[in-house]
Amino acid sequence: MPLDIENEEVERLARQKRFRDTKSTEQRLKEIARSCAELPVHDYGSDEDIVAYDLNGLPSSRHSRHLT
Description:
Order of helices and strands: HH
Structural class: mainly alpha
Strand content: under 5%
Largest sheet: none
Shape: elongated
Distance between the termini: 50 Å
Number of strands: 0
Radius of gyration: 24 Å
Mean pLDDT: 78
Low-confidence stretches: 64-68
Helix content: 40-55%
């Protein structure tokens, strides 16, 4: 959200804070992503098995019993 500040020093400090906050958020998101990437995989099914659709976008025959 843009600020309408008359004082140049206050405006400069506000820009610095926004920059630090953005960098801090980016760093935290990178840490979370890194942590998630290190988690063990407990489901070794294919992507199609997980979403229950084949490459043509149709329900896979293995999961068709859930659709009736």
